[in-house]
User: Fold these one by one.
Assistant:
Number 1:
Amino acid sequence: MKNILLLLLLGFSTASSAQSYNAEKVNKKAIDLYERALLKVQDGQLKEAIPGLKKAIETEPGYADAILSLASVYGELKDYKTAVEQFEKGRAIDTAYFRFFYLPYSINLAGLGRFSDALNAINKFLTIPELSDRSRKSGEFRKRSYEFAVQYQDKHPSTSYVFTPVNMGDSVNSEKSEYYPSITINDSLFVFTRRGAGYREDFFESTILNKRKYSKSRLINGDINLEPSKGAINISQDGEWLIFAGYNFRGGYGDFDLYISYYTPTGWSEPENLGRNINTESWESAPSLSPDKRALYFSSNRPGGYGNTDLYVSYRQPNGRWGPCVNMGPTINTTGKEQAPFIHADNATLYFTSNGLQGYGGNDIFVCRKGPNNEWSTPENLGYPINTIEEEGSLFVAADGKTAFYASDRSDSRGGLDIYTFELRPDVRPARTLYVQGKVYDAKTRKGLPSAVELVDNKTQKMVMNVQTDETGEYFITLPVGKDYTFTVNRKGYLFFSELYPLSKNQPDSTYKKDIPLKPIEVNASIVLKNILFETKSAELPPISLIEINRLLQLLTENPTLKVQINGYTDNVGKPIDNLKLSENRAKSVVDYLVSKGISVSRLTFKGFGETKPIAENSTEAGRAQNRRTEFVIVGQ
């Protein structure tokens, strides 16, 4: 609105410099219509002002002030195409009179994605010698934005990608504003914030039906909605936790704090403040929980940051409490505002908004990725048309890596901000992510066992996820495709469990259900080591095998009286006597490694069985692969 009024003042103040347009010669009836329309503009009635401006132009077709004011109104309504058309009509009347309007003209060209034209227009604006300092500063800011946009287009030539946001419809959106979408990894529950009367905000949920249809949204039950002043909400990938921003809740420290609510058989629990390691007397909001629930990302304006608001992260400790938060540093944070972080289910791709990093003019959405040493890459702007000259808000990307959700006040909004969904451009997508869930239980009693569940990247041999089952042994862990993983489960007093998930080439469409029986530590208990994949006719331990062998090393270290025998087996390819010797050498190589790590040789024995004890048919490659195995057996305690 302020931009429109400024433009009107500019129009009147430059009339005397016109070459062919003279406002003093305009038809009085047209002036009257124009001035009445201006009153509506000043009252914020933009759409209502349009008919009056049009009538003024019909009465005086060369009425430049009315034409340029109409262009400005359309620009405020984000009808950039019509705005540009009207600006160009005004320019055709008198180019000298128009020169101060090259700034808003450029903004509307940029709104259409015509950044080269916008850059040319702003360069003309900046040649005006009598510009005020404020106008010149504004023009130079826009010039930097347009130059960035042109360079971005040069680096990202147009492809077949089409940005087509789809309104999520009346089941989710209303005449009020909806924002901060968040979805569970299995696409079962959709939660978001809806603006109420005054400063009230409420949390809503919708069940995701077949073919991405949504049930009618409803208030989330429980104490979570009792207090009126709330903000961003985030649901954990397994649907068990809700973390949100709340103001003036019990136990708060001053401004907005972060709270947590747990799902129980009777509904969502009473919210709990996340404590002093996360919350301060300053503003904390926009939480995003990592898929393994071990890291919490959020935004805060606390003292000591790099700018207005910075991104922070806190890590959950083994005792379940959140550790002191850490500023994410100057690679991500700027002197401006960094907000709305979102960590994807792949646990390696972070999206956030910033008005401090170079972009298109306001808050833009950026992406950065976690490297092998847990360092974050330089943020990358998502580019036009995802980012525009307007203020972009929070982004959420589903587990498939391509379905994105965001809030916008596009032309088909039901009112205020609505939540839209669109397909993310391929080069800024995270990894498609599956998940495995199930129950860990005692192999003998079948009673659920609280246990530690870990996911290790086979290539880097580094842990990428670590979760704790609940008290009944239920677990949930995400599996980003594109890599091969070793999945292990550990509990004191039991043998560990391991499983391979080779997802670098094989990308199944379904998720995994895996109930895991853990064997108590006792004589004759045995485990097949599934990650010891020897090369043909070789007894040399491949690097990938160390992931599991180190689990065995840990088991022997934690149980210093335990004695084990390593058994080696082969398929039936080759001569039996050669296979017998090969299986023995392979078993011995495991023992040698354990001894090199400090395990007493008196606790270790080995034996090769060759092809004599197959557990599957040798007529298929899959069967032969099962027969080529290494196991350990407890032979003493």
Note: The two ends are 80 Å apart (CA to CA).
Number 2:
Amino acid sequence: MTAPSLNPSDACVVVPGLMPSRTRIRWAPLAGLTLAVCSLFSETFAADAFRDRVRPILVEYCFDCHDAETQKGGVNLARFDTAQSLHLDPRLWEKALRAIEEKSMPPERKKQPSTEQFHRLVDDLGEVLENPDPAWIPRDPGSKIPHRLSRNEYNNTVRDLLGVDLKPANRFPPDGGGGGGFDNNADTLFVPPVLMERYLAAADELIAATPRANLIRQEPVWYTPESWAARANLQVFLRRAFRRPAPAEELDRYVALFQSVRAGGANFEAALRVACKAVLVSPRFLLRIERSVPGEGPQPLDAFELASRLSYFLWSSMPDDALLDAAESGRLTQPAEWDFHVRRMLADPRAREFAANFTGQWLGTYNLAQTANPNLDRFPEYTVEIREAMVAEPVHLFAGILRDNATLLDLIDARYTYANASLAKFYGLPSPSGEGFQRVTLPDRRRGGITGMAAVLTKTSYPRRTSPVLRGKWILEDVLGTPPPPPPPIVNTLPADDKVRDGQTLRQRLEEHRKKPNCAACHSRLDPLGFALENFDPIGRWRDKIDGKPVDASGTLPGGEFVEGPEALKDALLRRQDLFLRHLTEKMLAYALGRGLEYYDAPVLKDITDQLRRDNARAETLVLGITRSLPFRFRRAAEPVTAAESSP
């Protein structure tokens, strides 16, 4: 076989047109010399492509709207002048590349690049974004401030520590939502004064309700000092509460507190409870504190810090004794032992906390009672029971995918769902055979996956009608990770319901709205996606007519792809599964780390999504990839302290 000759178009061939994902065909020459030349050529091409081939086209066609002065939509492309600079904001350039591929940018009314320029933009931008020089992006695991337990994490932790079924954190101030969109983001978990008051009250309540057996594992005996038994009990309690063995001097302080209360006349149990209450208001219990180590480059977390990261990722709670024992013995840092505990914890019922917290916040369905308000006169079927079942459905689906190590693409298109009797009746399905939520086989592809779930469809509707715009925005933003720009400040409102007015359906009114130049660019992306779901009414039931007229669930995506109905929409999403898998990975990594992602996290995202592609997007591959990654297992080194800074 003769290796093909090389020219710039051979280095990376990109299939033109509206691409669900860039399909790159790379030559694999057999001759070693040819391979070396190919590699050298590719690196040089990637380094020079943006400056020499891409930026001049952007200057000609894009900078009149997106330079430093205009910054339409808040986008300034002029600040990027080298291939390396693109990787300071790769998400912006990925969005720009998609807009170019879809031919939504430049807008139709603007001067358009030639066919040759269009392909050059797509080819060269894609090459630079997908194959960055490793030297361009620092190997940085990021840093994180001490991580206060969120309300949910606090409730779960005291449940597992004390064996109580109370939820005192429900009376705490609400947690913030930070980078990544999750309430466990350390940067937003402040400790205001009112929260300290609630911590003290919660500690009183919890200690009063604590079963004696969970505090006193060793009774005092007549032939040894009581303080010995107190020390033995506190040593076990502190190890679990602080999620690592307590140093001797720290243990001594709690034993001294026990002795002081005992000397005041309290009995052994009462004095021990006071010492345990003090533990519950300690920063070492309320915060996940990781040591800060000076040095060069990423610093590995110790075994106990890793145990806490893993348990709060998969359980939203403290490590169990098995995980702490593995950390204390040193086994946890061994790859086989680590993977064993990841799989063990995914199989544990406590992993449902992960499914509930991650899925509910990612999809925006966990607080449906606050974010959706269907008109009950028009939709009396929307009861509290149905609403709660709606919220539970995506949680059970995601938990089942984790438990079975199924493909994550079932989130897009599955021939099954999970329903209880009330939700099955609401959907028109046979009632499940068992109690509670059960896996139910669906008769067709209309309903399966998150786009056909009533919680999502209700969340993206108005009280009296559906909203193709909101549904399309949700797909772009929460499913594909390609959010549209914000709407202009003045937008004409549409009717509050979907009744035909002046002979026009709601869809016809939307199409009139979309003809306006300032609206067309966004609505050409939003509306067709939302129209495909129009057979689902404002509370997610199937319908064939709207106000007596047949439902029109068709639309044309930018670039000419026609979709009609939820099945075709799923096909279109599956053709864009690379976008979905990357976005899902990005969301889960942010959730696992408890921080927003930065540009230096891009290589990790790419590595994990590449693994998912190779492994049919199995759920375990994603979780293991995250827990094995640099930012999960390492932290940024602390700045060295100078002599002047350390002096009094």
Note: Residues 182 and 361 are 6 Å apart (CA to CA).
Number 3:
Amino acid sequence: MPNIPFSQLLRQLPAGVATLEGPELRFGFVNEAMRALVGEDAEGQPIAQHPGQLPTALLDVLPQVYATGKPYTAKACLCTPQPAAKEDCRYFDLALEPYNDEQDEPAGLLLLAIDVSEQEAARQQAHELALVTRHLDARLRVLTETAPLITYTTDAQGRYTYASPQWYRFTGQPPSADLTAIWPLLIHPEDRLRALYEADTARRTGTGWNYEYRLRRFDGQYRWMLSRALPEVHPPDPPVYWHGALTEVHDQRELADALRRGEAELRFLADSIPELIWTATAEGFIDYYNRYTTDYSGLTKDELGPTGWVSLLHPSEQAEAARRWVQCIASGEAYEGEYRMRRLDGAYRWHIIRARQLADGAVLRWFGACTDVHDQNLLRQVLQTQYDELARAHHDLDTFVYAASHDLRQPALNLRGLFDELRRTATFTDPEQALLLGMVDGALTQFDNTLHDLAVTVQTQRAQQDPVEVLDLGLILEEVLLGLRPQAIQREAVLDVDVAEAPGLVYGRANLRSVAHNLVSNALKFAHPGRPPHIRLRSYHTPDGEPVFEVQDNGLGMELADSSNPVFQLFVRQHSHIEGTGVGLYLVQRIVRSHGGHVKVASTLGEGTTFSIYWTRPT
């Protein structure tokens, strides 16, 4: 094997090698790798005058190394002309080694340059990654330590290696506490074995976990927590760490339990109600029936299906009910109808079916009920039959009273004629002749007036069936006062009329005239003998908008000791010394009540009376 000269080996060495000879430190030997740094013509020139790409800081060190004889090493020195792009920068490890001559005197320096550009680039990149990692780690720590949850890390053996500060604030444990030992002891005894088993199984299988358990808080209360964790995976190696979080879900758990209890109570209540209760989706398909529905129909919930109540209806009513149901689903209107529903024994019973839509956020649901009104319908039919019979009997009675009063008036007229003829032709020696004749005459007059008032009462009752219309109250009163003009003139009465506030009234014409006539005629009849009558007629509206007709006089007045005073009873009179039959006020109250109104009376004996008629509100 041929011997290769040592100088040739040095020239082919990939590291730069050069000798700096003498105190001037002139380049002596320079191999090829060093020429790339100092230039091709560096040999024989002082390094201070021909440094090439060597850093200036190295030139300052050279004389000291030569003088002291101590080696010097510089790591990762930048040996690139400035300026240069980052990717063009070259880094070298530089070493200075003094050497002596044969007399052991300093002869020069050996300069070595090893290219470490790739290593330095990798080191800088690792440094930058470390900075980024630290920034991310700091950011992650801030996020985990400020979030409203507890974060933790555990290893494959179940040892807790990290817990966020929220853990210590929640549990009240000191930071020096052994997490691995204390953690299981803070879990509720009823949940401890299950929680430990879940975590241990997940670590053995290399999977995550998600379960709830109760954890003791610093005040001794156990709060429900949701524990979630995922393994840190680095294939193909098995997981070594699990990172997780504890979130307090106590309030949500309590609310969910309350909702479940409330739902169970509502279902129990719905099952206890003797009505067909059901709910439907926004599309109208029924998704719940209470127990009474299945008991009534004899069908299971599956047999009833999504349109169960429609299928139970009488065949002749199903199409109309279904069409109405579809319309309500489309429009959102409430559903209501009365239909016959088939019972388990095949009998059809009348039900009122109602359904309303409930909007809970974006969820729409229908709640419905079918109420059995079959017995009420039968009772209503019986009552209607009885009412019709009573109406016929009442009509027959009115006809009889009217006919009797009409037929009896003729004998009364005959008695009146015979009495007048007897008084004209016959003479009596009785000293009380005039008194007896006056009494007989008064009795005949009273008898005739009573028969007349009975006929008027029947006629008024029949007039109550007359159609109502919008009446001008002023014109009606003008007609009434015109008919009573002779009595008003005779008594020198003053009449004030004010109907501007409520001039119109929806009522029957004959009824309104009868009410006004009776009240005004009574005011004239029962005038105080010591002063002329002053009658005020006015109309107004109550705060609720109801029209009121008021008649006020300054006459004799009445005694109204309590609410049971029989002012409006038939044939009852308070002033018997004045001619009358006691029918007028009875007619007034009967007419007003028949239309849903009422009469109020306020009176002071010797001062006057006020009648207030409250009519039904116009529609």
Note: The longest strand covers residues 348-360.
Number 4:
Amino acid sequence: MRNPRYHLFTILFSITLSSFSSVCKAQWYDPDKVNKKAGAVYGKAYEEAVAGKYRSAIQHIDEALAIDPKLVDGYLSRAGIYANLKKYDSSVIDFEKAFILDSVYSLNYLLPYSISLAGCGKFQQALDAVNHFLANDKLNSQSIKAGNYRKSTYEFAVNYEKTHPVKNYQFAPVNLGDSINSSALEYYPSLTIDGSKMVFTRRINSDEDFYESDLINGTWSKAYPLPGKVNTVFNEGAQCISQDGTWIIFAGCNYPDGQGSCDLYISFKTKNGWSEAENLGPIVNTDFWESSPSLSPDKRDLYFASAMGGGFGGRDIWVTHRSPTGKWSRPENLGAAVNTSGDEGSPFMHADNETLYFNSNGRPGYGSTDLYFTKKVTDTSWLEAENLGYPINTIDDEGSLIVAADGKTAYYASDRGEGKGGLDLYSFILREDIRPLKTLWVKGKVFDKKTQEGLPCTVELINLKTRQTVSRLKTDEDGNYLVTLPVGRDYAFTVNRKDYLFFSEHFSLSQNPADSVFYKDIPLQPLEAGAAIVLNNIFFDTKKADLKPESVAELDKVVMLMNDNPKLKIEIRGYTDNVGQAKDNLTLSINRAKAVVDYLQSKSNLTGRITYKGFGADKPVADNTTETGRAQNRRTELTVISN
């Protein structure tokens, strides 16, 4: 049933707009003739409000309204104060009381009333209200401009609701509690890949430092300052911790060695805590502002916001790539699918290494700064960014948002009324349509096949369907690695290290469930005569010797191996299963080995260094009575002749 007060307000509204000139005569409220005692108390409230003492101002207004319940200015002023405090529900109630008392006197307040309605998520009512406001032909140009701007945001919100039905979704942020939040400001959370460690920024007075909390048996531990040398007397903020928990990259402002006002710095986890921060240098940092870093899960790409020249607007999102030698490349702008003529910031790359969340004030939205997401198509192209929608986005500024590896748990900072003090950290469940890809974990160790000792090196993972590298990560000093990958896909794993044969193998992970762990230890064979590897990612059609396009990535690894070791001599050996005639199998194996050599020769001059041979169904490595065994026997091998 419709609220009677709202019904009465709607009637008054329609009368006002249909015959403004005649209704003007019906105005009864005169601010110069209010109850003197109520007016005196209200005057004190006005002074308190101007001074920013909102709570005291509300108390005085309450007193004035107790003396004169028809003090229209009291309701309008209290409505404005509640709006400043983001208590939009209370603001709407007071606006509507004022309209009921005297809709003509209150007519000019239709615009702030519409804003408070939108603050409550009542966008259609807000649109109706602002349309009534704009119907007033006595508005000045500034009011018309402000009204049309709000109208565009309400129209966006109404259309978004129509095109993004929420079904049974409920937005229910949960405060992370006293162990993390305090009476100070907490913001900019970042997580390790397993969700067990959170690092965030806490600002006490004007000093920003990093704090850490650990998730133990489902409960966050009491946050403590990061040990070591990363926190200083200067301001550290807007940090991200690498998903393996070994790096922190952050914005350091007004540091003595800075390139500009705020630069990007890196600190490494050591046995004695976090190391003293190092400036990322003049290739990445400029004379302008750099902040809000976010590392890709493999630590190969660093996304950040900067006001440097050459972008689309004030602040854009850029990416720099880390080379195998550890050097960062010159930053590249993410382009028009992400950046606008306004400001973009707070990028966050999810564990799927494809979905990027960020904020912007340059796109259609709810007003101020909204949160958006996009997905990476290639290393240089992105899908057009999409708004995350209400109630994640509101009419107020939205800051940063991160999403855990599970793809559904989000964390953000908010100054919601039930907080511990100022900005607090909250978690909530994302709507399904704005979630990143589900991921699985891949972990293991790279080691010397002969000595069993761990080998630090680079592990590259390639999407077999697109042939694009989805992750290129470095192991730790003991050869251990950990990475997340989107589910529903098959991958090739390749490892290269000087003085070793490369490792290459493909895995069908498309059926592995989300959040599961796939373990793969990787043995590397020293580069010596007799060493051999199966080229697992060489593909042919049945009974044919034509290389399939999916084989190119693997063969290019062989070319790289030969170029890096100019004295290396190898033989490519082809094998088949035992299905069919032995003579045909032998011919097929020879032709397939030759096809591999022909491709390698087309990419590099390997004359005198490479030979080939076919063995047909001889030398099986598995039982030919099963399809799995026959598949293993149909193989291409690389054997070292000399080095």
Note: The chain has four domains: 4-163, 184-429, 438-526, 529-643.
